[in-house]
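hiii, so i know i said id send this last week but things got crazy w the move. better late than never?? heres the sequnce for the chain we talked about at the cafe, plus the structure i predicted for it. fair warning i was half asleep when i ran it
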Amino acid sequence: MDNKEKIYVGYELGKDYCQISLISPASGKEPVLIPAITGGENTRIPLLLAKKKGVEQWYFGQEAEQKIAEEEAVAAEDFYEKAQNSEQIILEEKVYEAELLMQMYLKKTFSLLLGYVSFQKIDLITFCVDKITPKQVQLWKTLQKKFPFSEKKSSLISHSEGFACYVMTQEETLWDRGVILLDYDGSLLDIKSLEINKGTMPRIIKVDTLASAELPKEDETLFSLLKQVLEGKKAAMVYLVGTGFAESWYPNSLKLLCQGRRVFRGQNLYGMGALTYGKQREEQKNRKYLYLGQEQVKLNFAVPAICRGQEVDYELVSAEEHWYEAGGELDVLLGESRELVFYVSGLYGGRQEIKLPLSEFPLREERASRLGLQISFTSEETGIIKAEDLGFGEIYPATGKCWQQEIDLVQLAQQLAKVKQDT
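okay and structure toks below
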């Protein structure tokens, strides 16, 4: 199926709202923002769940907001944050797992899609969250199992990556000198900078945080911060997102931002970025630009193997993958050596060996032992290589013995960079 015929969904999950967008053959090239209430105009769905007093009836979004205000229901406060920490919520003396409440909220918001597309026809739904943390990933992987569509049809990205994805859909001349993003919810301001390394191919796009601070709605305070943070920045484009910029309380700051720059304001940038992520991922082999953030693995992992009589490097993990989606498995026959060798290389060269000793390995003939190899990641800084004895049929039954080693990805990347520099 051609990309133009595929159906992509973007699900922006903020601290106090969610927003869902869709692009499909029926919508043409224009994305559709799903309203919070059928037939309504507001597309920001409050991140609220409320239980009707005295009975097991639940409301979400705007209806929950209304029922809480009318004192007909009690709010399940901070259920998203508590779900990430595996906490519980007590409502009317009854205990609820926050994770199950998060599952309920997602299920209710997914139902809003049914007026536009069936779950089976979705090619990819991309969730866009503030930051990717191990706790966030664990929650997402648990919730994935309960989604009304295949786990393979969902992905997770950060707001920074959503920002980059959205920017890359715009005319290249607008952003090839970099972009500034101001995200303000009325109390917390995040200022980020998107910059491009044009000395590589593909060209690397990075998003860095320039400032993050509590900020009152005072034009003078914002003006002072911007003058300090933006000094020397060559960006030709600025995006203002968040409800804090909805009102016109910052005229002087806006004038400063407009000096030599084009300024855009909106409330759906991250969701639109999530929406375009699916298409950009499918085109990554031929991409001119590549986003590389904290979520991406910066190293390639391979093992030596014999293929058709020739020694080759069999790749288990490719750099550029999200650490929480990356991983590789392979069954191998062990030779005379009692250690496994993994090759690690960087994006721009350099190569290093990692050895996993197989201590106390059972005494067997050469190539009479099958091992299951596995590489996985627990964060952007840590990887795990593992080998398990699978035996060799009925001749040598599997012992189930495992060998495991933790990898410091930051240290490895630094060592490879040094090797590259020395050569």
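btw The domain at 161-291 is CATH 3.30.420.40 (Nucleotidyltransferase; domain 5). thought thatd interest u
miss u guys!!
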